[in-house]
Amino acid sequence: GVDYRYWVRNGRKAHHVIDPRTGRPAETDLLTVTVYDGDVATAEAWATAALVAGREVGFELLVERGLAAVMVDQNEHVHVTEPMMGRAVWERG
Fold first, then answer.
1. C-alpha span between 44 and 12 (Å, rounded)
2. CA-to-CA distance for 13 and 25, rounded, in angstroms?
3. How many other C-beta atoms can be found within 10 angstroms of the C-beta atom of residue 32?
4. Quick one: three-class SS letters along 10-52?
5. Which pLDDT band holds residue 92 (cuts at 50, 70, 90)?
6. Residue 13 contacts by C-beta under 8 Å, 6 or more apart in sequence?
7. Segment 16-36, tens digit of pLDDT
């Protein structure tokens, strides 16, 4: 995620997730993405790819691959793929 590991430089917020297309911190509408998979490297790779892609495209990528995932956007709305629904208890407040 980009919500905890960040810094401010020249008045702009930057973070550690780099967009490989630009070589700069990714401009994303997401705060964090978590992917559950039996292979940790696969989970980390898809979480990062979805974070960089943004909510709409990232969510679509995860759904197309049937991955269990949770995304939190900049407005703190939570987006959950169907496979994740069976893996966690969700409460609405």
1. 26
2. 9
3. 15
4. CCEEEECCEECCCCEECCCCEEEEEEECCCHHHHHHHHHHHHH
5. low
6. 6, 7
7. 787 778 888 888 899 999 999
Two tokens, residue 11: 């008045």
Total Cβ atoms within 10 A of residue 21? 8
78: which strand partners? 72
Is the pTM of the predicted complex or chain greater than 0.85? Answer: no
The single-letter DSSP state of residue 83 is: H
Residue whose pair of structure tokens reads 């995620």 in the numeric block: 1
- pLDDT tens column, 33-91: 999 999 999 999 999 999 999 999 999 999 999 999 999 999 999 999 999 987 766 65
